[in-house]
Design brief:
This protein has about 425 residues and is an alpha/beta fold. Helices cover about 45% and strands about 15% of the residues. It folds into 3 domains: about 140 residues, Rossmann fold (3-Layer(aba) Sandwich), CATH 3.40.50; about 200 residues, Rossmann fold, CATH 3.40.50; about 35 residues, no CATH class. Strand 6, helix 7 and strand 7 form a beta-alpha-beta unit. The longest helix is centred in the N-terminal third of the chain and has 21 residues. The protein is globular, with a radius of gyration of 25 Å.
């Protein structure tokens, strides 16, 4: 059932609640990760056989780009290349630049960046082989200058991985590809095994079990963020075709977990009722209708009626969605009021799917309300930031008394002496 409520209704607060770490996922991740820490490769192979059905011993895949390209529909090859080209261009443009400032007595200070040496990316492949995620993760690491990029994705019981997904991984720059999914993939990359050395950071989306595993290996490795089921919010003032609005609302509901959420905020009841009817009508024609029905049955699609766009925007900010579409007049102006959203899509010609597949920014984004404190994946997530200071004698002389004062307050004699001794 798709409910229509007004702002202030208690249903909105209930809708906004998304548990980040289901208990069953936490306990399962803990058990599998502990086994991998203890038994290494044997534990990974056991988990792959148990949870994925693949009982082969060889987990690493040798992938040749040219052979893959010949086996794939040319239209799909062009699409992957188009997406990769656009994402790479955006990624290179977004990289932070090092900078330097002069200190008062002729020295300098600033920041510079260096790429990580070895990172891991997780590519979901359960309910849908996310070839686009290959582009939206590996391309960013490559743009950042990472030399070793490990990719993990689940295979079927026969050990095969979708060729388009593999092609996208290889084109984007993956240097190692493993047919390992779920918790076991996170454990293998985080702790290392005989066939796969540990990485420094793990990025990429996944289900609740993958998310729980990423959270639990934090500290052994860095992670990008914790992410859960997909979600979208759409704000409309009735100026955009409701067929488009309905299609956009449904775009995230078809992912497959059943826990996806779609929030539609309208500025009048008539638009809300018409939108609900159109959403239900379009659902009937979807190939993944059964998956969308699960979302609807669980109350995963909610329509809110606000008095105006400003109030509607506040409803969305409180929801803090992964994806936020502004389908109103003057969308660029409305966008200035956004505080909490993983990615924003402004204007009627910008469906969320453009961001998922081709526009440029990564589609690896915070979910579950985490957009009020986390950002989406960027190339800088695969780099290390270094600050630097290069004082002259004059700079140290000017600051020596401050250093000595702090050292005295904190009882750190050697700290103070390190400055004092240079002038004795």
């Amino acid at each position: 059932m798709i409910k229509i409520v007004k702002t202030g209704d208690r249903q909105i607060a209930k809708f906004n609640q998304r548990p980040a770490f289901p208990e069953e996922a936490e306990s399962a991740a803990s058990a599998v990760l502990a086994d991998i820490r203890k038994r290494g490769e044997a534990a990974v192979l056991n988990a792959v056989a148990k949870f994925e059905g693949f009982k082969g011993k060889k987990l690493r895949l040798e992938v040749e780009l040219e052979k893959l390209e010949k086996s794939i529909d040319p239209k799909i090859v062009r699409a992957v290349k188009d997406a990769h080209r656009r994402v790479l261009k955006f990624s290179k443009a977004s990289l932070r630049k090092g900078w330097t400032m002069k200190t008062p007595r002729g020295g300098s200070a600033g920041e510079f960046y260096s790429p990580m040496d070895r990172v891991g990316v997780y590519i979901p492949g359960g309910t849908a082989p996310l070839a686009s995620t290959s582009v939206m993760t590996v391309t960013l690491a490559k743009a950042a200058g990472v030399k070793e990029i490990v990719a993990c994705t689940p295979a079927g019981k026969d050990g095969n991985v979708n060729p388009v997904l593999l092609y996208a991984l290889k084109l984007a720059g993956a240097t190692e590809i493993y047919r390992v999914g779920g918790i076991q993939a996170i454990g293998m990359m985080a702790f290392g095994t005989k066939s796969c050395r540990k990485v420094q950071k793990i990025a990429g989306p996944g289900n609740a079990f993958v998310t729980a595993a990423k959270r639990q290996v934090y500290g052994y490795v860095a992670i990008d963020q914790v992410a859960g089921p997909s979600e979208i919010a759409v704000l409309t003032d009735g100026s955009v075709d409701l067929r488009w609005i309905a299609a956009d609302v449904l775009s995230q509901a078809e992912h497959g977990s059943g826990y996806e959420k779609s929030l539609l905020v309208c500025t009048d009841v008539k638009t809300a009722e018409a939108a609900r009817a159109e959403i239900l009508r379009q659902t009937e024609s979807l190939s993944r209708k059964a998956l969308v029905d699960r979302v609807i049955d669980r109350g995963g699609i909610l329509i809110v009626v606000a008095k105006d766009v400003a109030e509607g925007l506040e409803v969305v900010n409180q929801f803090a969605p992964e994806h936020f579409e502004i389908m109103t007049k003057n969308a660029a102006k409305v966008m200035k009021g956004v505080r909490s959203a993983g990615a924003v899509f402004a204007g009627s010609w910008t469906p969320e799917s453009a961001g998922d597949f081709v526009a440029g920014p990564s589609h690896v984004l915070p979910t579950g309300g985490a957009a009020n404190m986390f950002n989406g994946l960027t190339p800088d997530d695969f780099r290390r930031r270094h600050s630097f200071v290069a004082f002259t004698r004059g700079d140290l002389a000017e600051t020596k008394s401050t250093i000595e004062a702090f050292a005295a307050v904190e009882g750190l004699d050697a700290h103070g002496r390190a400055a004092t001794i240079r002038f004795e």
